Fold this protein.
Amino acid sequence: MAKKNYQYEKRQKEIAKKKKQEEKRQRKLNKTLAADKENSEIISEDAENEAETTDDDI
């Protein structure tokens, strides 16, 4: 009867776990970047709207 290679199985589990963690980190990073991009677009739109209202007041 063949002996199981527990070290190989453990290493495969560790690799799968690290891969899953890296994918999760990437998803969080992409989500954060998308939120930052939306916020910067909103801020630039607000700045443009303020510039238009101050021009109208003159």
Observations:
- Residues 12 and 25 are 20 Å apart (CA to CA).
- Helices lie at 6-57.
- The mean pLDDT is 84.
- The two ends are 92 Å apart (CA to CA).
